[in-house]
Amino acid sequence: MSILQNKTVLVTGGTGSFGKKFTRKALELGVKKIIIFSRDELKQYEMKQEFDDKRLRFFIGDVRDQERLHRAFDGVDIVIHAAAMKHVDACEYNPFEAVKTNIHGAQNVIEAAIDCGVEKVIALSTDKACAPVNLYGATKLASDKLFVAANSYVGDKPTRFAVVRYGNVVGSRGSVVPFFKKVKETGVLPITDERMTRFWITLDQGVQFVLDNLERMHGGEIFVPKIPSMNIMDLAKAIAPECKTEIVGIRPGEKLHEAMIMEDDARHTLEYDSYYVIQPEFPFWSKQFADGGKELPEGFEYTSDKNDEWLKVEELKKLVEDM
What we know:
Layout: E1 8-12, H1 17-28, E2 33-38, H2 41-51, E3 56-60, H3 66-73, E4 78-81, H4 88-93, H5 95-116, E5 120-124, H6 135-150, E6 160-164, E7 168-169, H7 176-183, E8 188-191, E9 197-201, H8 203-216, E10 222-225, E11 229-231, H9 232-239, E12 244-247, E13 259-261, H10 263-266, E14 269-271, E15 275-278, E16 294-295, E17 302-303, H11 313-321
Helix pairs in contact: 1-8, 3-5, 5-6, 9-11
């Protein structure tokens, strides 16, 4: 039986790419009710037309508004926190707006979840939260810390919090795949740097990883999947082999390579067959939660340029075609 069976689930930012995919899966798994919490009424209207399921509810609200979250979380069993300002350049130009959504919003979700007796909360993070160089990554790192620490002050409440951190999602809104598809008609693809690498995960894989960790979590973990890397030049060949490429330089706040686990985090990280668990450094964490995990060697780092698994051009081409 799925953990979602007969549960009431709420997804913040639920009209986004992840939210739609998660909603479809949750409905298949027998969810009792799923609530989409977001601030854009047009996107909610469009999503309602697309799904047309009586178990689906739509709740207009902003994670910046704690009172609205309290009202939305009433009777909710599980919360998936996907709402965020995630575009790097928008966060750089509007820094405190990113702080209000990604940090203050995270704390509001935590407070509302504890007060309303939500059972489990999983927050979506990003590889950019690991050793951040841009404001988006910095706000998501702060958010991760808040969700991990929240487990230490729930008291006798049942609420538990965990984080899922993964890389770039193939075809998500604002990602490089739809951008390349759009500009390939010009005959030239702009490339920031031909050495650039990224972790790569599909929406289906991202949703399944969240579902898997709802089952696994005890509270306080940051779950990191083992996923392949890709080189930007290989992606360009997969999408538009006929196009020329033009090197335009790395944008402000952009990394050459992404990371999901750095050396200092690796010292309290356990490795499993298909994922890693970054353990919290808090007194509430018990080692009995971590049975079967393998400690990582000193100096270990999980970065997109030093990955053991790489997507080749043909594999990237198939991923793009299957979108």
